[in-house]
Amino acid sequence: MMFLFVVLGIVILFVLFAVFLYNKLVILRNRVNNAWSQIDVQLKKRYDLVPNLVETVKGYAAHEKELLENVTNARSTAMQAQNVDQKGEAENMLTSTLKSLFAVAENYPDLKANQNFAMLQEELSGIENKIAYARQFYNDSVMTYNTATQTVPTNIVAGMFNFSERNYFQMEESEKEPVKVEF
Amino acid sequence: MIYQEISSNKRRTVILISFFILFIVALFYIIGLTFKGGVFLVPIGVAIATASSWGSYYYSDKLVLKISRARPLEHNEYPFLDNVIEGLSIAGGLPKPKAYIIEDSSPNAFATGRNPEHAVIAVTTGLLEKMNRQELEGVIAHELSHVGNYDIRLMAVVTTLVGMVVLVSDILLRSVFWGGLGDDNEGGGEGRIIFIAIGLVLAIIAPLFATIIQLAISRKREYLADASGAMLTRYPDGLANALKKLATDRNQLRSANKATAHLYIVNPLKDVKGFTKKIFDTHPPIEERIRKLEEM
Question: Which residues of chain B have a CB within 8 Å of the CB of A140?
Answer without folding.
Answer: 231
